[in-house]
Design goal:
heterodimer; A: 584 residues; alpha/beta; Rossmann fold; GMP Synthetase, Chain A, domain 3; 9-stranded mixed beta sheet; 6-stranded antiparallel beta sheet; 18 helices; globular; disordered C terminus; B: 82 residues; mainly alpha; Non-ribosomal Peptide Synthetase Peptidyl Carrier Protein, Chain A; 0% strand
Chain lengths: 584, 82
């Protein structure tokens, strides 16, 4: 029976959960920090905790990464091997003259070199900035320039398709290391062969003495207006990665763990690279794109025990039917978590039907660096809720009063903005070069998330919507401004307004409304031309899936395009207060 | 249905999803999604579009076999012949 709450009992748990009442009561961030090793001379470094701590200890020969290539060939890399490879990459960066704090960008499919480069760069004290490989040249160029990229690690085909044409626009990018698509192929001119560079490098490296406040990761995210924002994270964030790996994902030493998120996004970095290594577990990396049968086969054949995935993927599995899942067995699987957008109750229940386990939604953002609110193994689940704050996290629902003060709403089930009390170690420390935008995210002690939510009387949080126009598609944030700008570059386009259109599979899809310049006629051919134009620049992950023509776009008196009105019309909703509208 | 017709249909459906793609420039034997930028939703839309145009059922369990353009042509041509 589908009740409003999924009760858990001791019998539902195959291992004692890491988060029980005692662990929750005794938790402090300083105690979590004390469980990590720290660097020999003081300070802390994410890669040291992820690699050296194990490579110099009992886990040296344990498999750290199990990589599955597109044809399903398996390659195991132990903690000792991964550490040596990361050391080689760190030495390569030194030889190239890359200094502490300089940015190393990654644009790769999920191949072992991506993980080696990320960890090696962290060891060298460089800052890692991952890019999604489905970005087109324009988002790549913008981020390389904003992030002041010094080094880019990519593959031959991605370089040729997406980077070569924009390279001159990013003069600060000095070194491009490429992984050839075929082992024997030569690399494009102006680039260095990744494998050859590492072959010449020593496999020992003294980790750069980074402190907890040194910049480690730069994750780009999108706002409603303006350029993407580079959220700065520090090496001290590793304490959150560690604690949340333990409590939100319940990692135990013998787990086989699979995070399906791409490392081009924050989930794929915090929980696809860092957290599993901190816990010394074996992490599955699948290079291939989503395929329902393939995923079931991986869960079964690799004996995955903890699985961290996303609502869009779950809904695609649901679409393939529960019968397909029943053709496989998952006796080792003991915990499933999901992040990216709110998980609908049907999907939580589907997990129970198809996989034998409910799916545990959790909530966090690029800015928070790690999971903040979640449904943990021992907790009863209220399907549709993101769960409760993790130990060390104080979350509140807030609103601005008439006189501009921030007020914490204590009444249950009242909508407001979700806010987090400052002080968790993985809180972002800035938007690179955009101090004002950073400051406006805070009010006193509270970080304002931009998400609207409610808290019920039991302390469970429920997502309501975004307080801005950012689009959430397949778990990825897309800034409407970036899409509108690309469309505006087309000579036929006079104005463009971009919204998220609700979609049963990916949450929202990007839909663009455009009006045309004089002399251009709306037609199917032009619509397709604009679609191709946007896709070439932005890539499939960011470009609109739908484009519609309008004679003109609704604007406020100050001239801003009213995306909310476009969205209300798209959904057939009441248009609300239109008094701000031009001409009304 | 002969493979050339199937290929033309694929080109027509793909042109509505990813109009920037020119099938003539692709290596028909290499994985399609390595050469062109198609996300999961684009791929799904391509399958749905082919199903509608050709009236051929393409069950989810067959998706994994449809990697290259040649795979897609051969699969659809064989199914259309039945």
């Amino acid at each position: 029976m589908r009740t409003s709450i999924i009760r858990k009992s001791a019998g539902d748990l195959r291992l004692p959960p890491n988060l029980d009442a005692a662990a929750a009561a005794n938790f402090t961030w300083s105690q979590a920090r004390a469980e990590l090793q720290g660097l020999p001379g003081g300070g802390i470094n994410i890669a040291h905790e992820a690699l050296d701590r194990h490579a110099n200890g009992l886990r040296a020969t344990h498999v750290a990464l199990r990589h599955l290539d597109r044809r399903g060939h398996r390659r195991d890399i132990t903690y000792a091997e991964l550490t040596r490879s990361a050391n080689k990459f760190a030495n390569t960066l030194r030889a190239l003259g890359v200094r502490k704090g300089e940015r190393v960008f990654l644009l790769c499919a999920r191949i072992p070199e991506l993980y080696i480069a990320a960890l090696g760069a962290l060891k060298a004290g460089a800052v890692v900035s991952p890019l999604f490989s489905a970005f087109g040249p324009e988002p790549i160029k913008t981020r390389l320039a904003l992030g002041d990229a010094r080094v880019l690690v990519t593959t031959t085909s991605l370089y040729q398709r997406k980077v070569a044409a924009i390279r001159d626009a990013v003069p600060a990018l000095r070194h491009v290391l490429v992984v050839p698509d075929a082992p024997t192929a030569t690399v494009p001119s102006g680039t260095v062969d990744f494998g050859e560079a590492l072959a010449c490098a020593a496999d020992v490296f003294a980790t750069e003495p980074t402190t907890e406040d040194d910049m480690a990761l730069l994750h780009f995210t999108s706002g409603t207006t303006g350029t993407p924002k580079g959220a700065v994270h520090v090496h001290g964030a590793v304490v959150t990665h560690f604690a949340t790996g333990r409590y939100a994902l319940d990692l135990h030493p013998e787990d086989i763990y699979w995070c399906t998120a791409d490392p081009g996004w924050v989930t794929g970095t915090s929980y696809g690279i860092i957290a599993p290594l901190l816990h010394g577990v074996t992490s599955i990396i699948d290079e291939a794109d989503f395929d329902a049968e393939r995923w079931y086969r991986i869960l079964q054949d690799e004996a995955v025990s903890v699985w961290y995935t996303a609502p869009t993927a779950i809904r695609m599995l649901m679409k393939a039917g529960v019968e397909m899942a029943r053709g496989y067995r998952f006796p080792q699987l003991r915990f499933i978590a999901s992040v990216g957008e709110p998980l609908n109750p049907e999907a939580v229940w589907w997990g129970k039907d198809a996989l034998g386990l409910p799916i545990h939604d959790n909530w966090w953002q690029t800015e928070t660096g790690g999971i903040m609110i979640g449904n943990t193994p021992a907790m009863d689940i209220k399907p549709g809720s993101m769960g409760r704050p993790l130990p060390g996290v104080e979350a509140g629902i807030v609103r601005k009063t008439a006189d501009g003060r921030l007020e914490v709403i204590e009444t249950p089930d009242t909508e407001g903005e979700l806010a987090l009390r400052k002080g968790w170690p993985s809180m972002f420390r800035g938007y690179l070069g955009q101090d004002e935008r950073y400051r406006t995210c805070f009010d006193g002690d509270w970080y304002l998330t931009g998400d609207l939510a409610k808290r019920d009387a039991d302390g469970y949080f429920w997502f309501v919507g975004r307080s801005d126009d950012v689009i959430k598609s397949a778990g990825h944030l897309i800034g409407p401004f970036e899409v509108e700008s690309a469309l505006m570059e087309h000579p036929a386009v006079a104005e463009a307004g971009v919204i998220g259109k609700p979609d049963p599979m990916s949450g929202e899809v990007v839909k663009a409304f455009v009006s045309l310049r004089a002399g251009f006629e709306a037609s199917d051919a032009l619509r397709l031309e604009l679609l191709g134009h946007a896709r070439k620049r932005l890539g499939a992950a960011v470009a609109p899936k739908e484009i519609a023509f309008l004679p003109s776009l609704p604007r406020t008196r100050s001239g801003k395009i009213m995306r909310r009105l476009l969205k209300a019309r798209e959904l057939g909703l009441p248009e609300g207060d239109t008094s701000m509208l031009e001409g009304s | 249905m002969d493979p050339a017709e199937v290929r033309t249909t694929i080109a027509q459906v793909l042109a509505t999803i990813a109009p920037e793609v020119d099938l003539e420039t692709l290596d028909a034997r290499a994985p399609l999604r390595d050469q062109v930028d198609l996300d999961s939703m684009d791929f799904l839309n391509l399958i749905v579009g082919l199903h509608e145009r050709l009236q051929i059922d393409i069950p989810e369990s067959d998706y994994a076999r449809l990697v290259s353009l040649d795979d897609l042509v051969a699969y659809l041509a064989a199914k259309a012949a039945r």
